[in-house]
């Protein structure tokens, strides 16, 4: 069968132009997003592999940092004398909030490149050193891991980039005895939040505000020098500036940015369904249509390229079958 080289060339040019345009606008909806529901994020009886997937911090931290972190915990939180797992994570949160809440502000740009232990040591060198929620999240996650708790990083993201509230970062910690995830917001002094006897996860707290019918809440926080769990009546509650219909949640598998943004990982995410976080937002419309369009253009181009090279690079022959150059 004779190949219509002109037609193939036209298709090839079209695919090439499509891939170039998609690459230029790759951040405008062409990335793959894994939308998850409550059952996927909070299974009733999570196994070890599920919990480990969300707690990849140990891959980044050396034994020396883990040992230093454990010494700091014992010296400053007394967790080795506490048997209640809720009290353990509250003690860690109180310690970090007491240590650094007075230093809240815009941090130096390089601080995010430091390990959580290095961030702690750097911030302790002077009250003029600033931090925001990202540093609280990183340090709390590290020290929870040192204490033996599985935990994960959750980011609250604006649905539209023009919102003035920006982003916010919190932690979720898995309590093995209670078999539940609980949200800890160290930077905002919300160590645990519950309604009746139900402690909120990040998704649970978001759903509480999406429901739009406030009820009595009990918030554990630092008041003066003591930790108190106080009741908040619906009349006194204000709409949370982050947990509302204008925001959704991202659950990150890892915060090893050097690995996540390596060339190989970026190429893999570009062409395959290989996300480094999961999204929860029941108010969002879910679609990966543009990502599938990108896949079609990429793989169609990749399949056609060898044929085009063969057609246009193979030696030409005259009517006698002889090569002409």
Describe it:
With 325 residues, the protein is of the alpha+beta class. It has two domains: 1-30 and 290-325, no CATH class; 34-184 and 242-283, Roll (C8orf32 fold). 40% of the residues lie in helices and 16% in strands. It has eleven helices and ten strands. It has a six-stranded mixed β-sheet with strand order 1-10-9-2-3-4, with helices on both faces. Strands 6-5-7-8 form a four-stranded antiparallel β-sheet. Helix 1 crosses helix 11 (289-313), helix 5 runs antiparallel to helix 7 (133-146) and helix 6 (116-123) crosses helix 7. The longest helix has 25 residues, at 289-313. It starts with a helix and ends in a 12-residue tail after the last helix. The model has no long low-confidence stretch (mean pLDDT 88).
Distance between the termini: 24 Å
The overall average pLDDT, rounded, is 88
Helix/strand structural class: alpha+beta
H/E topology pattern: HEHHHHHHEEEEEHEEEHHEH
Estimated helix fraction: 40-55%
The CATH class name of the largest domain reads Alpha Beta
> Main beta sheet, described?
6 strands, mixed
Please give the CATH architecture of the largest domain.
Roll
Computed Rg: 26 Å
Task: Indicate the overall shape.
Answer: elongated
Tally of helical segments: 11
Instruction: Give the low-confidence spans.
Output: none
Domain module count: 2
In terms of DSSP E residues, the strand content is 15-25%
Strand order of the largest sheet: 1-10-9-2-3-4
**CATH-defined fold name of the largest domain:** C8orf32 fold
């Amino acid at each position: 069968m004779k190949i219509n080289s002109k037609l193939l060339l036209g298709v090839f040019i079209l695919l090439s132009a499509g891939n170039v345009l998609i690459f230029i606008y790759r951040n405008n909806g062409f990335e793959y997003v894994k939308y998850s529901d409550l059952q996927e994020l909070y299974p009733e009886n999570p196994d070890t592999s599920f919990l480990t997937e969300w707690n990849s911090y140990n891959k980044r931290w050396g034994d020396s940092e883990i040992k230093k972190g454990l010494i700091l915990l014992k010296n400053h939180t007394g967790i080795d004398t506490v048997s209640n797992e809720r009290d353990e994570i509250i003690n860690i949160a109180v310690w970090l909030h007491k240590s650094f809440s007075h230093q809240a502000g815009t941090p130096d740009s390089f601080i995010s490149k430091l390990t959580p232990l290095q961030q702690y040591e750097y911030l302790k060198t002077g009250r003029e050193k600033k931090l925001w929620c990202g540093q609280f999240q990183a340090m709390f996650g590290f020290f929870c891991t040192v204490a033996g708790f599985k935990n994960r990083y959750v980011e609250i993201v604006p649905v539209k980039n023009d919102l003035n509230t920006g982003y916010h970062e919190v932690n979720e910690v898995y309590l093995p005895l209670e078999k539940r995830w609980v949200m800890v917001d160290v930077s905002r002094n919300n160590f645990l939040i519950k309604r009746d006897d139900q402690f909120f996860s990040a998704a649970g707290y978001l759903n509480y505000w999406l429901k739009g019918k406030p009820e009595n809440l009990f918030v554990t926080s630092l008041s003066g020098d003591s930790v108190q769990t106080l009741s908040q009546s619906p009349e006194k509650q204000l709409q949370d500036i982050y947990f509302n219909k204008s925001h959704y949640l991202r659950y990150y598998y890892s915060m090893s940015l050097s690995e996540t943004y390596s060339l190989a990982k970026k190429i893999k995410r570009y062409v395959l369904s290989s996300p480094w976080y999961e999204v929860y937002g029941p108010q969002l419309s879910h679609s990966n249509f543009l990502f599938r369009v990108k896949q079609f253009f990429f793989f169609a181009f990749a399949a056609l390229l060898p044929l085009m090279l063969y057609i246009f690079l193979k030696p030409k022959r005259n009517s006698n079958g002889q090569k002409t150059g």
